[in-house]
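Q: For a teaching session next week I want to show students how multiple molecules come together into a single three-dimensional assembly. I've collected the sequence lines for a complex. Could you give me the predicted structure tokens for the whole thing so I can convert them for display?
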Amino acid sequence: MSDAELPSSTGPTAQDDFEPVSVFEDSEMDLRPGADNCYKCSVCDTTCPVAEVDDEFPGPKFQGPEQWRLKRKEDDVEIDDSIMSCSNCMRCDDACPSGVPLSQMHNTARGAYVDEQMTKLSREYVRNRILANYGTLARLGSKVPRLTNFVMGNSLVQKVNETLLGITAERDFPEFATQTFREWWAERGGPQVRSEDKRVAYFHGCYSNYNTPEVGKAMVRVFEAFGYEVAVPRQRCSGTPMFANGMLDDAERAASVNVSELSDLLEEGYDVIASCTSCSMSLRQEYPELFQLSGIEEVAENTYESLEYLRIHEDLDGALADASVDEQAFAYHAPCHARNQGLDRQAVELFREVDGVEMEDVGDSCSGISGTYGWKEEKYETSMKIGDDMFEHMHDAAGEVGMTECPTCSMQMEHGTGYEIKHPLQLLEDALC
Amino acid sequence: MPIRDDVVVVGGGLAGSMAALSAAESGAQVRLISHKKSTLRQASGLVDVLGAVDGEAPISDPFAAVDRLPETHPYRIVGVEGIREGLRRFDDVVGDSYRGSHTDRNALVPTHGGTIKPTARYPVSVAPGLASAEEDTLLVGFRGLTDFDAVAAADHLAATGVPFDVDGAVVDFPIRFRDDARTTRLAQALDNDQDDVRDRLAEAVAAELDGHARVGFPAMLGDDHGPAVRAHLEDRLGATVFQIPTGPPSLLGMHLEDLLIDALERAEIRLSTGNRAVGYETADGRLTAVTVDRRGQTVPYHADQVVLATGGLVGKGIDSDRETVVEPLFDCHVPHPEDRYEWSEAEAFGDHAFARFGVVPDDDLRPTDAGGDVHFPNLRAAGGVLGGADVATEKSAAGVSIATGSYAGRRAGEEAAQ
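A: Of course. Below is the structure for the complete assembly, covering every listed component.
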């Protein structure tokens, strides 16, 4: 409850006919109630992984409610350029005890900053646009995967990327698979299980299509083992990297395709499943917060992360009780976006009881890469500093295989430790299929 | 059945954590559901049991004063033995990190406002600063850190009649940070001894020391390496160094939260954090599940026994609008005057009715309806959501949470085992 709701202790003039009025008529979304809810406890600032390592970053409380108020008061107040240092990990959402929609405020401010204050010819804008549209890049690259892998793995090309574009040369580009998930899906002839009442539409996202199709295949095999009919609709990027780079128009174009395709399937009784926790986060939270598209609420309400869905609808504990896999210890990292959906403990909780599996949570720190953030030359160092805690805990853990739901966390885990990184669905496939 | 446990506790603060820990002692499988970071992060980290009764403060022996509380007070329900049981569990959780378990009597801790707070348990770094020790004291604040005014705090402390000389000094923190840098930033610099900050801080303070036997800083002397930071400063200053609890962001509150989470993990309690509990399912008048919102859909978490530990008005376990006061999750009865102008008094520190708003427990901490019957036989309540205690005035918030959380959790565990 905000102070404003407390009854006045001194003014006994009853105002029973009180009607809240909208002060800002032209505003697309009124963030005022959110800003008013902030009681400045600063818990968000103490959970922000960027603020922890970068003293220049003023933190989520400034980026959200305070900046919103400054901007409201005077039209010529510009948005502070530090908004571009927010990595969109969304931990502040999870921290706020008072319901302030911090990430929504950050996304809106970042979008306005990029639209109105960033020079469209600047290297930063061009670079961010390229990174934000990874899906398009990947579609082209994966047409000739071996050639792309060869070219992108070339250190000279990496140097050129860094010098010309500001994409760090410290990281190896993720390899493209020789066969994409969608090619595999077409080759096997689509769904192998038919069902009238158990149907899921798979939102594979860019990464498990172009880079790690084994995750997508595991999803299909696991869900089919539980008797689900799987559909793989036409889809574009979920929008996560676009939000993080303030490219809200690009994100809305992609969202309109996704919402339209998924809405059609919802009508046929499908629920939407994502294997990437940033994709599910985007469809679930950012879509309805940022866009007004027909069917967007229904898509948000019916989207689930894959393990989450099975835990709700199937007796997963029971199915795993008799399962066993080759002995393996894993160092599990919960992505920030999984944390925001309340999913940060489910993999450990689920697999802890499986014969042969040792599963250790490597702590609640952020991996630091935050999608495209850690690919930016000027953010690379910050990204690795944030990741230090996680690397250290991974080395301390018994396992030498990492596990996470997020593709870019997995890049960071591999980059920092050299471990192979798996998705929980792959372990579930091992145990059940 | 999909997600199922023996006991579900709703609320991840002090009461909920203590409830989960004591329920798990019975061997029950326990799940703790919480929505956001708990209000512990804004709390002082001190554990008050009872500091004031009927306008008498400070109370020296909280246990002896319990029978002076109204019969509807949660302490009267769990009794002195219930409070002791809760504190025993708490002492197990915090181990060497806290002091105060050696005596029944309240300790007197100086606060960042320069008042004296009667408290039962306090962080080990706070211990050397107790107002009962007759040692001349220097309070040190930092220029730009507006949360703590050392000179005003020292004046206030002197005015309370403490048995020693107390002075305040303001120094520059040796590293210049952004103007509105948080205490956490300063703590981190001291943790890492960034740019020899420990020695440089000691040097700045030594110039003001002037024979004082102990030096109090706002609680920012390191986070992960607090003991090393204090030892370093003590060595350089030749004086005892202690911390003064602060408002948010409160490192002492965050440290207590960490200790509780470690204990919950050791007890293999399942933690589901990030989504809000919004409703419940029943069969034959008993709760069968608590339902949790996941942005539009609700997911049932099945359990035999449920503990409600969602907090009071600040923690949002009790809510109100212009018409009424409610407990939003189970819609338990919350008695309150019909006329909302009777909810509060004109004076800020008056005897406010709202301070006692909360659910009404039976003699087994089960919330009851307006007729005095339990809402559900397998639902218990603990902590701030319970009515009948004005914890701010009594200085009993942490104690009520620990005692009732511990009791409700133990009973839930026992019932689940049957």
